[in-house]
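agent> Task received from the user: take the single chain below, predict its 3D structure, and emit structure tokens. No templates, no multimer pairing.
agent> Plan: (1) validate residues, (2) run structure prediction, (3) serialize to tokens, (4) report one or two observations.
agent> Step 1 OK, no nonstandard residues flagged.
tool_call: predict_structure(input=
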Amino acid sequence: MTTLLYGLSFLLDLMLGDPPHWPHPIRWIGQLICLLQNWLRRHCHSERALYGAGALLWVATVGITYLVTWGLIALLTAIHPWLGLAATVWLTYTILAARCLRDAAMAVYRALQSGSIEESRRQLSYIVGRDTASLDSTQVGRAVVETVAENTVDGVIAPLFWLFIGGAPLAMAYKAVNTLDSMVGYRNEKYRAIGCVSARMDDLANLIPARLGWLLLSLAAALLGLRGRSALCLGWRDRYQHKSPNSGWSEATVAGALGVRLGGPSYYFGALVEKPWLGEEERPLAPADILTTVRLMYLSSMLAFCLFAVAAFVFKEFVV
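)
tool_result: status=success, residues=320
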């Protein structure tokens, strides 16, 4: 029954994505982070105090998210079991981001195809943290491919991993961890102290999913007739070239699958950040690579769901 509920949520995400006017728990988590961060900054001013405040921010956000999710499902189940099932499906659906990733990537792709570099930069700015105002079309395409590759893990594989381990409460807690990292997990002056714990805990939460993503993306590349062997080998070779201990796995794997280079220097908040290149440039990156990366994301996500469902079934049978 549980796997069927998760499968329904997975299908809902593929069909519906994230309609902007629908209520969404991740937005509420973001609002909670803003409220807690503002309160903590009013009371903590030294760097040492901000490190402690960052730990408190992480514990409070993740703890509240887990308890509220668990409490809501328990309350609705007590009222009527069908309400609890419906809440589980809805909450599980909201933690997955495959369709949302696809839609965001396609918005940039359509702008590139129409020849509007300004519109492609604007659409890109919604999904990346780097400065986009001066990017050319190749750099825009590279940024989209990198974002889809990285978020294949963060937005789909990792949430599914934690979902099958601990249900909707643990998966929602993971999304709180991920949201904290995206909002405060920066190394600049403003966030270095208060975001330190959030950044490190996000690294830990994605440790296993990132490595599974390397294998699943490589398998997806082979099944799609791409460079499956290169994806596997370059994903392993360049896995630690990225500043993140996890993002390099998926980005280098996708670079290998496409036969292009990803990474390289980029501007963030007006400052140049030197990043190493990932993969081998067998050819220039083209807008069509965005479409191929979306297909890789979809197929590897489906493979992840199947893998985790089978693992959960086998584990249950073994334990019983």
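agent> Step 4: summary for the user.
The first strand starts at residue 262 and ends at 263.
agent> Done.
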